[in-house]
Structure formats: C-alpha cells, structure tokens
C-alpha cells in the first residue's frame, strides 16, 4: 500500500537536532537533496568543482565569505555559490539554513578534513 504524502515541517525538523555543521537531508528532488543545518562559528574554505550550492537562511544570519567580498544573508534570503568558487560560511550566532545540492555532495567540497561529514537522512 502506498505511503500517504506528508509535508516536511522545517521547524519540527530543526527542533529534532542540535549538532552544528551537520547536514540533515529532509527531502530528495530528482538527483538533489534538500538539507537543513545549524551553524555557529566559521567553517572551512572550500569549493565544489562540479556543482553550484544554494544557501537559504531560515533563522539567524549567515556570512558567506568569498575571496572578492562577503555576502551577508538574513532570514528569508538565499544565495547561490557558483561551482568552483571558493567560499567559507561564517555564523556569528546560531543560524539555521536550508541547502539544495546534488545527492552525495560533501559539505567540505575539495577541502576535506575533520569537518567533513556526509549528510544524514532525517526520517519523516
């Protein structure tokens, strides 16, 4: 028997975890994952050679540091980092974001290192 379609409640999903810099996959659209994450502090400089990366701020404030100038995002704002562009997310306060990127995209892109984590699937 087919499962009843259920909408994703972003607030509920965010309330279900507290780990920082850990992406949680909440939906899949074709070959893309819709992920939530909580951020605080500075991440690592990295790039994604094969894909763009979409950041949408849900709460808090996110600075996406770029080599040629920063982009500051408030709640309800989004920014797409083009493929191959080196960037470093920075959140001076706890910030909740939604990411949209191809399935299997690593959070640290080409940088690797101790902050590398595969996205975890969050159950419905």
UniProtKB/TrEMBL annotation:
Annotated Cupin type-2 domain residues: 40-95
Domain of life: Bacteria
InterPro entries tied to this protein: Cupin_2 (IPR013096), PKS_Associated_Protein (IPR052044), RmlC-like_jellyroll (IPR014710), RmlC_Cupin_sf (IPR011051)
PANTHER family (UniProt xref): 16.7 KDA PROTEIN IN WHIE LOCUS (PTHR36114)
Official protein name in the record: Cupin domain-containing protein
